[in-house]
Write a structure and sequence with these properties.
It is a single chain. By secondary structure, the protein is of the alpha/beta class. Among the domains are: 39-193, P-loop containing nucleotide triphosphate hydrolases (Rossmann fold, 3-Layer(aba) Sandwich); 198-259, Orthogonal Bundle (Helicase, Ruva Protein, domain 3); 264-383, Zinc Finger, Delta Prime, domain 3, CATH 1.20.272; 463-549, 2-Layer Sandwich (GMP Synthetase, Chain A, domain 3). Helix content is 48%, strand content 8%. It is built from 26 helices and 10 strands. A 5-stranded parallel sheet has the order 2-3-4-1-5, with helices on one face. Strand 3 (139-144), helix 7 and strand 4 form a beta-alpha-beta unit. Helix 10 packs across helix 11 (232-245). The longest helix is centred in the middle third of the chain and has 19 residues, at 296-314. It is extended, with a radius of gyration of 47 Å.
Amino acid sequence: MTVNKQNADPLPVSNDDNASYQVVARRYRPQEFGALIGQDHVAKALTGAITSGRIGHAYLFTGARGVGKTSSARILAKALNCVHGPTPTPCNQCDICRDISTGDDIDVLEIDGASNRGIDEIRQLRQSAVIRPSRARYKIYIIDEVHMLTREAFNALLKILEEPPEHVKFIFCTTEPNKLPITILSRCQRFDFAGINGRMIADHLNHIAQNEGVAVEDGVCEALARRANGSMRDAQSLLEQLLSFAAEHITLADVNRMLGTVDDQKIFDLAAAIKNDDPGALFPILAKASAEGVDFGVLLEQTIEMFRDMLVVSCGCPEEALVYSGPGRYDELKEFAERFGTERILASMQVISQTISRMRYSTQGQILTEMALVRLCGLGRLTDAVRLVDQLRSGQIPAPDAAVPIPSPQKKSPDLAARRPAAAHSALPRHAAPAKLAPPNRFDTPEPAREPDALPPAPKPALADLSRDELTKTWRQVIGRFGVSLSCAATAATRVEWTGGKLRLEFSADRAGEQSADICRKGTKSIVAAFTEFVSDADIPIEIFRAEEKPAPTQSRPAPISQTAKREEFRKKIQNPMVKKIESLFGGKLEELGDHAPPVGQKKPH
């Protein structure tokens, strides 16, 4: 990193010099591409473009806050406008380089997109862009937070962004590139700035502390790097606070007091209490943390970070994969991981994450923390449940944890026991001496008691003997033996009956019924096999048909009505009082229409 000698030495801060004091983040800002930390891919690409002369007219730098976007934009501006350039290594000694570093160059304009976001500001930019630079090689516009521009401002910027004058370059910086119109994105060379590795941040903070003449305890810079979460500027700001808090020697206790965090040992003590399923050991640790003014939201964040490293260890990753725990904690984390198991670690992280979300809307941070940690102590049963499920899936029947019961002694008839020696003696000849009985061997395994014979199964009924309700009930049981496809098709049957020595299955006449009937035709063997479990029939003929295939029943034609009956019926209609009233009202006359009546629209012939 290139830093001037006057900037590397600590500056005395007196009442007269307060106005000229610069914070650490500004004094140690990188001044060349080689000093960019964690952005090697950006530095290599821009250096290659300048060396080969392939310099674009618009660049877009995206990434989180404090990762070097604006610093890279200034370095690129110096590389293009340096008196020795264009060069990938600006001299930082000429007036142009110095003015660009301080933001005072008249040809390099830094615009805040949040406060200059309207169309009028962009119109002014377009009018000034056509004017050639006063002393530099290029007129460069650095627009920070460019995503804050309005839609009209973006539209006004499009034309000059696509075909700018040869002396104009644009550099856009944003943390939210998704808010930029695609028409802007397509006209820029995009560079994504990654979050900076914690080890790099810690090394840079140690370098700054040495230049400032401050002694730093081991682990301080690592704790600041973890809290910065990939942002170099945030880490430098935290170090600036510590320099004011402890000007000569910075300890981990100073870091915890300033940030409201707890010592890593307390986090591991909490993990040990959870590992031992001892919720009573949690409360003294939390009470001490509360007395020290610890933020319980930060405490839970530290806890979930420790569980993250525990998860990494449980998955078999090496020590280099640890992010939030020190290198000396690997063995302790491995012991925790073996005791917890991956499933319990994941469940614990989920509980902690939900508690952190709830804390945003509650003022009872300590109570929520206590609830979450006590709940973690009860998650030990989760490992046993997972092991039990694995055994059941593998077909093993887990043995109960209770002691093996002692078998009850079998009752023996005293008469039978007394009669056995006598029977043995009577079986021998009178002149033969009785044989000596061998003593029982205590290692012989006693024969298990013979279980009584099971009752014979009930005889299966025949299909012909089943009533309609019994057949329907049996059909439902048979459906349960099928697979998914055949079961769904069989359920669609509208009628099941035993007629003429056949099992008849009826389906509806629509397309769904036709598909179900086809599936059942293909699965006839499965249907017969399933029926044989419930009925005694060995061979069951099955007939499958749709409702439209059933023969239509013959209907008897009604007997013809005689002409005399027709005239009598017509006479009754004429004599109806309602008909007479209608005839008098409309001046018409009721006439009979039959097969001999003329078509509509023709008059009846006289």
